[in-house]
């Protein structure tokens, strides 16, 4: 207690998506999911529990936060305080080296870093499985950012059985992710709200649950077999299925914008030219392109030529949680 702890967590992008909860309070998902942790994007969070404070205070990217993000953080810290048997409020300083709330998984790195820093600052010594369970309570995708490389979040049934574990932390496949940021501003419909609406109103939701289980098995095979093409095809297919839930919700909504579709078209054109490029999209208009090192520069150039205002960054597999 009474020491400041800093943790770093990297973001992860799901290849098999999480899109819906069977228990909203505990964040138990309807499906298991599988992701790749990225080296390029991360969050550094410092937590200090201070008996003198009258409430939690959050500084995110050098700005004092007073809105829902503070409430979410405070509710999360209540869990940590309960586990550690302490009452003190905390000072939290966090820097996102990733756009916040733009569909690039800031909630994943954000809550994984917060889970690691706050639990240690509160005097707890959690193993990675328990850290994953804790991070999950802040944001589901954060459960996967405890680990590096390919990670599976086992849906489970309750708080004890829903956690992530590493499938392959030291990735052997030649795989990269180009992030194409068309719009880095915060989304209008948060992931939490979007998935809730899809589960409640899309007639295809049950089909999604069934198909996602099939995709997950095939994805694990692709990883074991170092089969890049199978991985890419499955990831793109699974992402489009997820977004179809939003198109078929009532009322319908989408995270895509016009350029999202233009980039999907460009990726198809590249494939017709023999370049292996596959797309995945999360709760935002920005596209992540899965590629291999020999093709990455060609793909990056094609994007820049066609979308001059897009910011393209090349990410590789990244590590799990660390303390600074
Ligand atoms: P994203 O696509 O970036 O994951 P979400 O809608 O899932 O977007 O989550 C964004 C929310 O996550 C923010 O509004 C905030 O509440 C929370 N968040 C993001 N980064 C942090 C952080 N570093 N510390 C605490 N909370 C964070
Ligand atoms: C589309 O983990 O951000 O990125 O659990 O409500 O915080 P909450 O949602 P979040 O959802 C992520 C959705 C996704 C797919 C994925 O990362 O699996
Ligand atoms: Co998120």
From TrEMBL:
<dbReference type="InterPro" id="IPR014721">
    <property type="entry name" value="Ribsml_uS5_D2-typ_fold_subgr"/>
</dbReference>
<protein>
    <recommendedName>
        <fullName>diphosphomevalonate decarboxylase</fullName>
        <ecNumber>4.1.1.33</ecNumber>
    </recommendedName>
</protein>
<feature type="domain" description="Mvd1 C-terminal">
    <location>
        <begin position="178"/>
        <end position="309"/>
    </location>
</feature>
<keyword id="KW-0067">ATP-binding</keyword>
<dbReference type="GO" id="GO:0005829">
    <property type="term" value="C:cytosol"/>
</dbReference>
<dbReference type="GO" id="GO:0019287">
    <property type="term" value="P:isopentenyl diphosphate biosynthetic process, mevalonate pathway"/>
</dbReference>
<dbReference type="InterPro" id="IPR036554">
    <property type="entry name" value="GHMP_kinase_C_sf"/>
</dbReference>
<dbReference type="InterPro" id="IPR029765">
    <property type="entry name" value="Mev_diP_decarb"/>
</dbReference>
<dbReference type="InterPro" id="IPR020568">
    <property type="entry name" value="Ribosomal_Su5_D2-typ_SF"/>
</dbReference>
<keyword id="KW-0547">Nucleotide-binding</keyword>
<dbReference type="Pfam" id="PF18376">
    <property type="entry name" value="MDD_C"/>
</dbReference>
<dbReference type="InterPro" id="IPR053859">
    <property type="entry name" value="MVD-like_N"/>
</dbReference>
<feature type="domain" description="Diphosphomevalonate decarboxylase-like N-terminal">
    <location>
        <begin position="9"/>
        <end position="164"/>
    </location>
</feature>
<dbReference type="Pfam" id="PF22700">
    <property type="entry name" value="MVD-like_N"/>
</dbReference>
<comment type="similarity">
    <text>Belongs to the diphosphomevalonate decarboxylase family.</text>
</comment>
<keyword id="KW-0443">Lipid metabolism</keyword>
<dbReference type="InterPro" id="IPR005935">
    <property type="entry name" value="Mev_decarb"/>
</dbReference>
<dbReference type="InterPro" id="IPR041431">
    <property type="entry name" value="Mvd1_C"/>
</dbReference>
<dbReference type="GO" id="GO:0004163">
    <property type="term" value="F:diphosphomevalonate decarboxylase activity"/>
</dbReference>
<keyword id="KW-0444">Lipid biosynthesis</keyword>
<keyword id="KW-0456">Lyase</keyword>
<dbReference type="GO" id="GO:0005524">
    <property type="term" value="F:ATP binding"/>
</dbReference>
